[in-house]
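Example record

One chain of 521 residues, shown exactly as stored in the release files.
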Amino acid sequence: MAGAFELKRRLYQYNHSMLPDCERLPTEVYSVAQVRAMDRATIDEHGVAGYTLMQRAAAAALRDVSLHWPGTQHLHIYCGHGNNAGDGYVLARLAQSAGIETTVVHCAPPQALTGDAALAWRDCAAAGVAAEAFDPAATLPRQAVLVDALFGTGLSRPLEGTFAAAVEQMTASGHPVLALDIPSGVDADSGLVGGPAVRAQRTIGFVGLKTGYFLGVGPAHCGALGFADLEIPAAVRLQHRPCMQRLGLDAIAAALPRRARLAHKGDCGRLLLIAGAPGMAGAARLAGEAALRAGAGLVYVVTHRHHAAAIAGARPELIVYGVDSAAELAALNLRCDAIALGPGLGRTRWADAMCRWTFAQSCPLVVDADALNWLSHNPARVGQREAWILTPHPGEAGRLLGTSAAAVQRDRRAAVAELAAKYAATVVLKGACTLVAGAEGDPATRVCLAGNPGMASAGMGDVLTGVIAGILVQCGSVTAAADAGVLVHALAGDTAAAAHGERGLLAGDLFEAIRAWANPS
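Predicted structure tokens for this chain:
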């Protein structure tokens, strides 16, 4: 079975359109200031020359080009200011030595460069690499790979003038673009852009992964990620606590170990799912089956009486109860290990009664959709909870924080941390590169690199709720369930998209892959 899981991992790496090699990326994610401090400590405390680091970066970039664009005939390298330009000049020299026709495009006077970047330019010129000043009307070589070596992480203002024109030329060309360290114009901490910004097919990061790769619009501009650590000493890295951590496959294995040979359904967790107002039976059905596919032993679905029979008929393995009131729910006296509340719940008196009853219970809880909206209006009714998971999208997160979805998206890392602190909960902030944060004492904010745009379709959030809740009743840890649930759901989406494409992907298409990814051993 271990071989089967390795096969799944490789399939995921091969097919994932955004981050195909994410399991080869480091776990740790840092701020720009931390990465610069590592770079400086390596030079000052460990005697590694800055130019040596620059050469290592350029060599890694050349390997990335050779791996992902094999047979490349021409590199067209846009060089700007600072060490990012230096990386570009060294890459130009190495590429020419490797037999690749290379042109350097000066977007800033190379004579103004200083330090290692100036040395890189002089060596490039001495090697006879073709160079030209930027010309907005220039015709680019056919089938060239363009390289963005304009600014890297050093940019603190919107691109303008020649640099903005260079970005426009790269964008309009239709050629693939490799960004060195960060696409120029993208803030490497926030992932936000304040003006023109490069949209790269690939970005190769150096020294440490930056938070901006995964926040704001960073994922859309970075494309697929490669990485080179430049042989930074381990002792240097240990001096810095990561800002975020990448969710890895070990999170699934930790939450879902191999079952005991004598296990029965009662040992595998009992989930109570409260979902599905009139007209929204599908949400309850999707969440319920997702919990079963994630491995929950028993799933009780409490839903509106209007469609209880339909849900049971569509998935007979679900134990379905139709209730009209909280009193009827209480009379069921269902024994459960956790409750999931919210998918398709609506905002009626019935929904209000279901929420009031649920928040009076003490067992672990997963809260989604309309239950989050109820929570935003009734925070005082919640009391002190010790084990619960909130799964908002940006709009719901904004309501919980008393702000807007746009404000949440401008600083997703701060928003998820604020939610976790405000509600003393583990929070899953959904979206591209979903974030997971826990209350004080939990690990650093986690980021999920899996998932794809095809998952922007109805019912995906209901399935995520079911997966997280299904894992929660098995492992008993809100932290482990949130981490593993987010990753299983995203990987299942990638597996389903790899089979038939992203467009037209339905939430129900994930079920088979959820089962596969929930069996790591």
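Notes: Residues 10-20 have pLDDT under 50 and may be disordered.
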